[in-house]
Amino acid sequence: MRLSTSILMVITAVFASAAAFDVSCNSNYASYYGQNSARNQKSLGTYCQDATEDVIVLSFMNGFPNLLLNFANACETTFPDSTLLHCPDMAKDIKLCQSKGKAVVLSMGGASGAYGFSSDSEATTFADTVWNKFFKGTDSQRPFDDAVLDGIDLDIEGGGATGYKAFIDRMRSHYASDSSKKYYIAAAPQCPYPDAYLGSVMNNAWFDMVYVQFYNNYCGLNAYPSWFNYADWDNWAKTVSVNKNVKIYIGAPGGPSAASSGYVDAGTLQTIYSDVRSKYSSLGGIMTWDVSQARTSGLAGSIRSMLDSGGSCGSAMKRSALALLDHEMNILQRRADPVEVSKITKPNLRPKPVKAAGNVATRAEFVAGDIVDNKYSTVVKVATLQNAFSGHWSISFTLPAGQTVDSSSRGTVSVSGNTVTIKSDPAAEKAKNMAAIFKITGTFSGDYALPDTSSAKFTST
Asked: Less crowded by CB within 10 Å, the N or C end of the chain?
């Protein structure tokens, strides 16, 4: 099929200006890269060869203010006499991604690591370090050499809120010093509102994008439509957020093994995306954890198709061009019958992370998963606070009254009275681990409740 000359001219002109990432769209696709979740992670540049993702979130800076980076197999070299990663190949790929119109941001935090600020002054000083090492500043050790990132993402899953607003304010002051490009601040809260770690920060600091993790929680995608709570985040965006134009992304597991709960297939995700898009102007698009999972499962391609066929941007000219191109190319929006998903029948249950007892410094957390009739699933999260732990580990905790445990997605389960012990299968574990996240299932009578985190004891040999 041939496009008319006039149409080609319009499309070329519009998309020449629209090629770069546009934060005002509701059709953007962000995906995390760097933790090799599917165990087949390719180079960053490989994923940037096509137009699938709009934002690449590099994960993680898992240590700060004592700076540590971890990108799994993507980068394993360090500066001489230093523990700081030096990633020249990633640096080249970052510039390649940006040349394709993608934004590349660095995520701070993650499910495990040693991070957090003791004061605003410490956070402000560290913002200077980040600007010098990853943006337009200068430093003798720049992990990505002369590549200049497009922003910072806060995926804070432990510690307190101290310093983060001061950090953001300082970063934004650095951003303002360089008018040559746009820079962004993002966050990746878990779906229970308000976020357990960044709630107060999000109410008082500027954010451009918020990648809500609608998985591993009672309010995940698998709870749609009953307890799926995008409406809470839309209300925050419009009535509480400092930036009333902040964009909220639907965070989804990229594949069945990407999360303990919350994965839905492409048809269900499109149903959810279309519903949210029709109701909420705060929508920014879809986020997945992670690139390797979403590419392996094929979900990434499906997401790109659904975003392209139904999304829009802030510019009327771009919307018109997209509609014109759709008409000329006869692109039909893929539709899928709604898929029944598990419905949560109990009220909001907020995670209560605490430092666990035992011989390893870890943080334990229990999160409500699927709850149907008298059956439940609870996500168990254990993250190191210091050093990695071995593949030989166990965790014990006290079950709430009326609950039983039938199975665990990781290790083996034993029960003595109301005490549950889960022991790892060393053959299935890595030699060194920063976190263990898995799901237990069972039954309950009366009201469902989370285990008391103060009863958790974690040991590793």
From this structure: N
